[in-house]
Each structure stands twice: as structure tokens, then as C-alpha cells.
Amino acid sequence: MSRFSGSTDVPVLTADEMRAWDSSTIRRTGIPERVLMETAARAAASVVDRLYPHGRVAVAVGSGNNGGDALVLARTLAAWGRDVIAVQAGSRMPDEALLHGWRIPVVPAEGAAEAFGGAATIVDGLLGTGATGAPREAYALVIRAMNDSARPVVALDGPSGVDLTTGAAPGEAVRAAVTVTFGAPKRGLLLFPGRGLAGRIVAVEVGFAPREGDAARLITPAWAHQLLPAVPPDAHKGRMGRVVIVAGRAGMAGACVLAGTGALRAGAGMAVLVTPEANRVIVQSALPEALYTDRDTADAMEVQRGAAAVVAGPAMGTDDDSLAFLDAIARGSDVPLLLDADALTLLARDPGLRERMDRPLLLTPHPGEAGRLLSSSIKEITADPFAAAAALAERFRCAVLLKGTPSLVAETGRGTRVNVAGHAGLATGGNGDVLGGVIGALLARGMEPADAAAAGLYFSGRAAELAGRGRGLLPTDVADVLPDALLKVPVPGSSLNLPGILLDLPAAV
Ligand SMILES: NC(=O)C1=CN([C@@H]2O[C@H](COP(=O)(O)OP(=O)(O)OC[C@H]3O[C@@H](n4cnc5c(N)ncnc54)[C@H](OP(=O)(O)O)[C@@H]3O)[C@@H](O)[C@H]2O)[C@@H](O)CC1
Ligand SMILES: Nc1ncnc2c1ncn2[C@@H]1O[C@H](COP(=O)(O)OP(=O)(O)O)[C@@H](O)[C@H]1O
Ligand SMILES: [K+]
């Protein structure tokens, strides 16, 4: 389960943004680079010593500052009484003065396999934010030896060989058990394949100045809970938000039921399900708490009047009738509108729909739907989801939740929000429908579309964590524990029980 500090603000940075933050901290505060390195390496040494307290530690050292971190860590562990050996991968070692006179045995890259074989734990200090392209030969050799050693590897800042901006691994790449990343999680650690190679991700505070600007940020529990409107003790159903859900063509009642369940489990005062007569018996039996309206009567347009938010699209159909109906719904009110699934396919077919409506809008595409909306391929979307989410937000002048691992929320002029709550148990048809309903409920309580989307991702992800990790988790199981996820802010902290941990994310398995 992901664990956070109590911070509402944890940035997610590209390698360039990280370097800019380094240098602006050094420039503005006068703190020497060596002090930042010392703090970073000592924090990483604490993590290594806490998780792997016994046996020899072999430290792989590159020639840049990532290697500098590795030398400081090696010296620190040696001073703490640990048995340490270094493997030199670069043509030169970082400044030996970093060792403060401690004598650490150093072997060349060719001796890596033997050195790792004789160690209990390996530390990867080969490449960090300054790396470009695939690791070159001596580095590649050391990485192969690391991966072949069957020893746990703790990566410093990122697993060497992973592009810390894109998550790509163009050549050999370290498979880490744990990554200790400095100052803020790097974007490439949260994107696959980087996310898979990073193992458990521990982000530690190392003394950077407060960040300015609109970089991407994690959706933290503290942030999501602080957005959540309180339930007043004198609440009544009219004040808790009425969500209209347009979903499920004939024979596809499930999508409608799941979205309605999501809305009610997230605290909507009322859910109105707009779906064809053929689905009536099913939706009213499955979800008697919701109201039903026949999509093919004039009532379907009337129900928008009392609505605080509208969710349209899950399995609603993509034929001409559905397009005409969606068009009427979109123009029929000015309350926030969420478009998902089939409604996104219809929007891709008729982008003019956007110009004909005048209301806060949120799109929640998965990469396939995003590809249709941007006329590009799924491959292009997943290669740079941050760019795709931003392009959609710009193109449709609205908030966008791009589903994926991780799911992102973008809106022009605001920093992208990155979701790390949840797990692969959510990869079951129907979870998107529940999510749409959850966000609908949050919109109906007055949250801005981008905030509702981000909070909806967090609470659904958190519910999946509470529901457990086993296979076969149903969307309704996730929905059932939503009230618990909404009620309790998780206690901050990590099982590492060390100060300064910003984020402790389990390995993606
Ligand atoms: N600055 C700070 O405040 C703080 C920074 N910190 C730490 O510094 C790290 C960034 O350090 P950095 O900028 O020195 O880059 P780094 O990742 O060590 O790589 C550069 C070296 O790798 C080499 N190299 C590059 N590509 C390669 C390839 N494909 N294959 C092989 N070699 C390759 C390149 O060689 P060159 O190309 O120049 O020959 C150069 O020698 C950051 O991740 C964090 O750990 C912390 O201490 C906290 C404070
Ligand atoms: N591996 C995963 N880790 C975290 N969240 C996931 C994972 N797989 C799916 N999800 C989430 O589950 C939801 C599935 O939505 P979607 O693809 O629209 O499914 P459907 O339309 O079939 O209900 C999205 O919010 C997605 O981000
Ligand atoms: K590294």
C-alpha cells in the first residue's frame, strides 16, 4: 500500500526539471552541491542499513554525481561498521575526497560479477538524472552482472539504464528491489517500464528549496481529503448533489448500474439513471437506490434540470441516435459534464460537439479513446502520456483524465496530477464506469472538474487498496469500500520508520 508523508505537495519531475531545481537551490540558498549530495547519500545509506542490515554491501560507482552519491554512501556505511566494496564502472572515479580518507576496496568493471557474488546487497550508483541514451559498454557490463547476481539492488535516484523522464529503457537496465530517489520522484520512475524496474520507490527529502512553477504533482491522500467537502450534520439528499448518468444502450445495463453505484458510494445525494426501457428492470433491481428515466422519452431531457452534474457515455452506444441524444444532453444544461467511453468516441466523430456546449467539461479517455480524439495511435499516446493529456486539454479546452499506469489529470495552465493509488486489480472491465460515477458525485458537490477527477482517482485507487490485492476483484467490491476510503485519511509515514520520507510506494507487481 502506498504511504506518504502528510505533505499535500509532492512534485513529479523530469530529469531537466530536477537539474533546474538543483541549480536554483544552489544559486538561491548558497548551499554547496556537496551538502546536497551528503544529505542524499546519508538518507540512502539509512534506507540500505534499515532494509538490509547484514552482510557486505557492493556499491557500483559511475563517474558523475550519481557515482558521487555512491561513494558518500559507501563511506557512510563503512563508518557505521558495514563491510563495503566498490565497483568502478566509469573511466574515472568521482572525487576521491568524498571518501574523507576512508579506505574502500575498489575493483574494476571486469570484477563486478565476483564482487556482487560476494555481497549480500548491491547499491546502484552508476547513472542518475545526467544519463543519456543506453548505458555504454563498461556500465552495461556492470548492470548485467547486477541483474545476474540474484542479490537485492538498491538504486540511487533511479535504476541505471532507465530514462528518468520517459521511463524508457533503451538498453541494459538495472532491475532494482528498491529505488531511493532524491528530492522528488522522477517522472520516469512512475512510467513503465521504469516503474517495473524501480521496485519499491522511496522518495527522500534532501534540502532543496521550495519548488515554484507548475510542475506535475502526485495526488496525495492529504491533498485529496482536504478537497473533499464535509458532510454537514443537517445534510439532506438535495444538498448532497444529484448526478444524472447517461449510460448503457439496450442490453448493456451493467455500465449504468456500475456508474450509479460509484456515484452513490461516493456520497451523491441522488443518482438518476438515463437508459433505454429495455434496461429498466435490471437497473432498478440491481440498484434500487437510484431513480430511473427512460432515455427514449422527453423525460430524459427534463432530468438534467435538477442535476448538479452529468456523466455521459459508458456503453451508451455510438450510433447516430446516440450522437443526437448526446448533442441534446450536452447543450441542455450548464452544470459540469463528464464524457467517458462511447461519448468520447462520439466526440471524436463530431468534435464540433465541444463548440456547441457551454459548461465545465471533463473527458476521461483510456489511451484508445485518447488516440481517437487526437487522431494518433495508442503507441504514441502511451509513449508520452503527459504530452497526450496536455494536448487533449488544450484541444478540447477542458480538464482531461487520461487513464493508464499511472492515470494523469491535465488542464491547461495547471500542473498535471499523477495518481499512484490503486493496483492492477483495477484492470477489470467496469472499474472505469465506477470511476465515472465517483467523479460525478464529486462534481455534484461543487469540485472543479480537474480536482474532482484527481480526487476520484485517488479515492477509487485507495478503495482498491483497501479491498485487497487478490485476483478477481470486482468493480462492485471496490465500490463497496469507497465509504471507508472517503472517511479516513491514511496515517502518514512509512514502515521504514525513518524521517524525511516523502513517499514510499510498493513495487509494481
Ligand atoms: N546536483 C545536485 O545537487 C545533486 C545531485 N545528485 C545526484 O547527481 C545525479 C546527477 O548527476 P550528474 O548530473 O553528474 O549525472 P549522472 O547521472 O551521474 O550521469 C553523468 C555521468 O554518466 C556518464 N554517462 C551519461 N550517459 C551515459 C551512458 N549512456 N553510458 C555511460 N555513461 C554515461 C557521463 O559521462 P560522459 O557522458 O560525461 O562521459 C557522466 O559521467 C543525480 O541523479 C543524483 O544522484 C544528488 O547528489 C543530490 C544533489
Ligand atoms: N494496473 C492498474 N493500476 C492502477 N489502476 C488501474 C490499473 N488498471 C486499470 N486501472 C484503473 O481502472 C480504471 C479502468 O478504466 P477503463 O479502462 O475505462 O475500464 P472500463 O471502461 O472497462 O470500466 C481506470 O481508472 C484505470 O486507471
Ligand atoms: K542509479
Name its key features.
509 residues, alpha/beta, Rossmann fold, eleven-stranded mixed sheet, nine-stranded mixed sheet, 21 helices, 20 strands, elongated, binds ligand NPW, binds potassium ion, CARKD, ATP-binding
Concise account of the structure shown:
The chain is 40% helix and 16% strand. The chain is α/β, with parallel strands linked by helices and 509 residues long. The chain has two domains: 3-213, Rossmann fold, CATH 3.40.50.10260; 221-226 and 239-487, 3-Layer(aba) Sandwich (UDP-N-acetylmuramoyl-L-alanine:D-glutamate ligase).
Please characterize this protein's 3D structure.
40% of the residues lie in helices and 16% in strands. By secondary structure, it is α/β, with parallel strands linked by helices. It has two domains: 3-213, YjeF N-terminal domain (Rossmann fold), CATH 3.40.50.10260; 221-226 and 239-487, Ribokinase (UDP-N-acetylmuramoyl-L-alanine:D-glutamate ligase, 3-Layer(aba) Sandwich). Strand 18 and strand 19 form a beta hairpin. Helix 13 runs parallel beside helix 15. The radius of gyration is 25 Å and the shape is elongated. The model has no long low-confidence stretch (mean pLDDT 96). The structure holds ligand NPW, adenosine-5'-diphosphate (ADP) and potassium ion. (6S)-NADPHX binds at residues 65-69, 128-134, 139, 157, 255, 366, 433. Its EC number is 4.2.1.136, 5.1.99.6. AMP binds at residues 403-407, 432.
CATH fold assignment of the largest domain? UDP-N-acetylmuramoyl-L-alanine:D-glutamate ligase
CATH class of the largest domain: Alpha Beta
Output the radius of gyration. 25 Å
CATH homologous superfamily name of the largest domain?
A: Ribokinase
Helix content: 25-40%
The side-by-side strand order for the widest beta sheet comes to: 2-10-19-18-17-16-15-14-11-12-13
Spatial separation of the terminal alpha carbons: 12 Å
Strand content range: 15-25%
State the low-pLDDT regions, or none.
none
Structural class: alpha/beta
Shape: elongated
Structural domains: how many = 2
How many beta-strand segments? 20
Look at the structure and give the mean pLDDT.
96
The CATH level-2 architecture of the largest domain is identified as 3-Layer(aba) Sandwich
Bound molecules: ligand NPW, adenosine-5'-diphosphate, potassium ion
Biggest sheet statistics:
11 strands, mixed
Subunit structure: Homotetramer.
Protein name: Bifunctional NAD(P)H-hydrate repair enzyme
Cofactor: K(+); Mg(2+)
Domain YjeF N-terminal: 18-214
